[in-house]
Design a protein that fits this description.
By secondary structure, the protein is α+β, with helices and mostly antiparallel strands. Helices cover about 25% and strands about 35% of the residues. Strands 1-2-3-4-5-6 form a six-stranded antiparallel β-barrel. A hairpin with an 8-residue loop joins strand 4 and strand 5. The chain starts with 11 loop residues before the first strand and ends with a helix.
Length: about 130
């Protein structure tokens, strides 16, 4: 999992921005790391070239840093690589798809064998 210490000053990082109310609209932009402190990484760039943004670690299990002031733009996350940002987009879409499939009317059409397979997958991979 990425931590503040993994980011280095004057290097490139990647911001994943999600537009509120439009979960399918995501974009990844390159930014430059200005400073790295003990709790925050400050970058410049992204979708607004002149803006400076602070990111910090919110949860240890995440592989990204979150916007320090979520009231400004709650959907922004900072990644070390563009690949990690793209994987986060895919992870979120898969979570949404699985959630929809398990809460929609279709869940009543699953056989007992299919439900057992789903349970086995979710229980078997929950430790990773």
């Amino acid at each position: 999992m990425a931590s503040v210490k993994d980011f280095k000053g004057k290097e490139v990082a990647y911001i994943l921005t999600r537009r509120q109310g439009q979960p399918q609209e995501n974009f990844v932009s390159k930014c430059k790391i200005i400073t790295v402190g003990t709790k925050h990484v400050t970058v410049i760039g992204g979708e607004k070239i002149a803006s400076m943004i602070k990111f910090c670690k919110k949860h240890e299990c995440e592989n990204f840093l979150s916007e320090s002031n979520p009231h400004i733009y709650p959907g922004r996350k900072l990644f070390l690589t563009s690949q990690e940002a793209m994987e986060e987009i895919e992870r979120t879409r898969l979570k949404d798809w699985i959630s929809y499939k398990l809460t929609s009317w279709e869940k009543d059409t699953y056989t007992l064998a299919q439900l057992r397979k789903i349970k086995a997958i979710l229980e078997g991979e929950s430790n990773t």
